[in-house]
Amino acid sequence: MRRVIALAKKDLRLLFRDKAGFFFTFFLPLIYCMFFGAIFAGGGDDDSTRGAIAVAVVDEDGTASSQQFTKDLSDAPELDVEVMGREEAANQVRRGERVAYIVLPNGFGARLDNPFRGGMPQMETGIDPTRQAEAGMLQGILAKYSYQSIQSMFSDREKMRKFIRESLGELQKDDAGDPVTTGALKLFLPALDMFLAAMPEDQSAFGGFGEIDIKQIDTQRAPERAGRPRSSYDVSFPQGVIWGLLGCAAGFGISFVVERTRGTLVRLRSAPISRGQIIAGKAMACFATTIVLQVVLFTVGTLAFRVRPDSYVHLALAVFCASFAFVGIMMLLSVLGKTEQAAGGIGWAVLLVMAMTGGGMIPLMFMPGWLQTISNISPVKWAILAMEGAIFRGFSLQEMMLPCGILVGVGVLCLAIGIRAFRWVQE
């Protein structure tokens, strides 16, 4: 074990002596965190590049009208709709699997059918706090299809006349109402019924009717968060940490190739040091660096930018699993090229693809649906999700198991492939 630790210390000393490498490993990710956190604090996203918004619909009304409205939303090209219960819908939004959920409460269908009696229909929406740029879009989409539903009711003459007759019947039974209002309605509604009966069939009685009532509700369990991250830095710091991890994986992977091409590994093999100890020493140095990197960045975030996790235990779990995954990726990168140039070019190409598809460069919300599906294979996505789950999404320990388990699996798989290929290269 002492030999492994000695080898790890050797790599760490080399890292700290390399001023450029030290800067890109520790300070560049911090600059990323601060820069993009400051930018996104002001909002202002371009909606034109987004695809369908993934939402969940909760139909608590269960009437024919609410079911038809749900179908209208499902057919809308702007939305990707899945119907489910309220609890599951809220959990999917909190886990980042859906942008929002929409609740059609009891009485929604009755109000949609006859806004004269109960007022305009009401609904609730829960928005992912990191996707506020899409909240306005969703409000507009819901208003659009609600308006279309109400317009279809007004354009149906027979349905309108039926509503009028029902309203007159209720007025006859209501003795407690204001006599002036009741008397006026008893005169107005029959006149309206006669107007509809005499109106030409190709004309509509009304051009519009009010605005639908959409209430946005919190999606986070922690009440002090008011349903959103404290600031944009809660979102940008996990992104910045990812770039630090990518830099560590690339740097240590290339250093392995350098030691092989310059004969360092041959000299180490002439000493009483096994291959396993050499690999373990490199892995330990990379793991220690990624841990220190994440601790430093999140400490700066906590002290200077109020990035305070919901659970430090869950954040520690996310940090550990992300480090383990990128140590495995480092080992795999070290055998992708036989020369320093080849290893550096191939390694960064692989890492950049991971970053692009996993949300490290382009936020997932801007990606088309097919690319969001592909992002599931990128460890970058799961590392970001694990950190966000601990910082502001309020993940339970069970919910942390999915991203963390995938990260550990990636680490094990990449280590196994890398170690096997490394032995083959040496022989």
Order of helices and strands: HHEHEHEHHEHHHEHHHHHHHH
Strands of the largest sheet, in order across it? 2-1-3-4-5
Radius of gyration: 30 Å
Overall SS class? alpha/beta
How much of the sequence is in beta strands?
5-15%
Number of domains: 2
Q: Flag low-confidence runs.
A: 42-50, 205-211, 221-227
Notable features of this structure?
427 residues; alpha/beta; 2 domains; 7% strand; abc type-2 transporter like fold; 17 helices; five-stranded mixed sheet
What does this structure look like?
The chain is α/β, with parallel strands linked by helices and 427 residues long. The chain is 67% helix and 7% strand. The chain contains 17 helices and five strands. α1 crosses α12. The chain is elongated.
